[in-house]
Amino acid sequence: MDWIQWYACIVCMFSKRSGTEEDQIIKRTDIYKKWKLPHVIRRHKGGTRVVAYTQLQVPHKIKHLIWRAANEAIPTLYNLWRRRVVQSVSCPACNSVCEDTIHALWGCHALKSIWEADELTKKLLKYKFSNFADLLDMIFKTQSSMDSDLLAVIFWMIWEKRNNDRMKGCWYSHQEIRSRALQLLHEFSVAKSPQQHHLPPAPARRARWLPPISPRYKVNYDGAIFKDLGAAGLGVIIRDSEGCVIGALAERIPLPISVATVEALACRRAIQFAKDLSIYEATFEGDAEIVTNALRAGTSNHPEFGLVINDSLALASGFRFCNFAHVKRLGNLVAHFLARKAKSGNVLQVWIESIPDDIAPIVSCDIL
Ligand SMILES: [Zn+2]
């Protein structure tokens, strides 16, 4: 079972409740059985998700719908049935499945064409999400590669269409939803920044991890500071062109004088780690631009980390191929979490062709 399946399953643990009205219970129990429904919907705390909602660059009404959907608070047939408003939970669009939130906004067969039009959402179709909150978590965790704003607008349009279809008929088709959503997003961003009316819309540029070209490797590094311990953490991950993990490392060191020095030390550790694993063709990538620029300059007299840079360059001189790249933080998340992991456990933790379970999901997100 891969981690996405695991993730989708693990959050779906329900408890049972007892009823009081016997006749109704028999009928409702039949429905529970028929549709394999949970008796109590488990609410998620969703702390990180709340932050993600607030960062969505979409109209407020759309944020609000997404928030309600994640909290099972939109009037799907299943939610109405739980409140004893309707008798049937069967999805009117496909007639075969219970219309709960995840079905209405994502899983319904009628929506397949929307998701199959994009490679990333098409890949997500392979996985079964127990509820909408789990799907959202996945989207927010992979937002370096997924356009969460666009998906939020699409979810909203699907819900609008579903409601209009019931009331008076909707004048746009499912196939049109993606292009309409793009249009709405564009209009929203123009309206938000009127001073830029004369400029063409900027292409959506997102920081994300990109695999190296075979036979080279990519080595991501990052540092973390643990002021309370008077220590810092170094995180390194080496991956091949398929995104497979060759090695990973988390190391705790005494706290240096500056954040940039921690980053420089992380890079030096990354080069040493690659050498230890007999890797001599690699790109070393970090999210501290000042360090990458110093490495690219070929020498440094920086008062804080100049010596570490020169050390790193000396180490790298033995490589057949070596270059230094900068990536935004979202493209460097695995190294970031490895550096954070150095806070606890042994001073040096190394994984060869494996990765700690709690970091594996982020590795998977990078290659989605
Ligand atoms: Zn359906």
Automatic annotation (TrEMBL):
<dbReference type="GO" id="GO:0003676">
    <property type="term" value="F:nucleic acid binding"/>
</dbReference>
<dbReference type="InterPro" id="IPR026960">
    <property type="entry name" value="RVT-Znf"/>
</dbReference>
<dbReference type="InterPro" id="IPR052929">
    <property type="entry name" value="RNase_H-like_EbsB-rel"/>
</dbReference>
<dbReference type="InterPro" id="IPR044730">
    <property type="entry name" value="RNase_H-like_dom_plant"/>
</dbReference>
<dbReference type="Pfam" id="PF13456">
    <property type="entry name" value="RVT_3"/>
</dbReference>
<protein>
    <recommendedName>
        <fullName>Reverse transcriptase zinc-binding domain-containing protein</fullName>
    </recommendedName>
</protein>
<dbReference type="GO" id="GO:0004523">
    <property type="term" value="F:RNA-DNA hybrid ribonuclease activity"/>
</dbReference>
<feature type="domain" description="RNase H type-1">
    <location>
        <begin position="220"/>
        <end position="342"/>
    </location>
</feature>
<dbReference type="InterPro" id="IPR002156">
    <property type="entry name" value="RNaseH_domain"/>
</dbReference>
<dbReference type="InterPro" id="IPR036397">
    <property type="entry name" value="RNaseH_sf"/>
</dbReference>
<dbReference type="Pfam" id="PF13966">
    <property type="entry name" value="zf-RVT"/>
</dbReference>
<feature type="domain" description="Reverse transcriptase zinc-binding">
    <location>
        <begin position="55"/>
        <end position="115"/>
    </location>
</feature>
<dbReference type="InterPro" id="IPR012337">
    <property type="entry name" value="RNaseH-like_sf"/>
</dbReference>
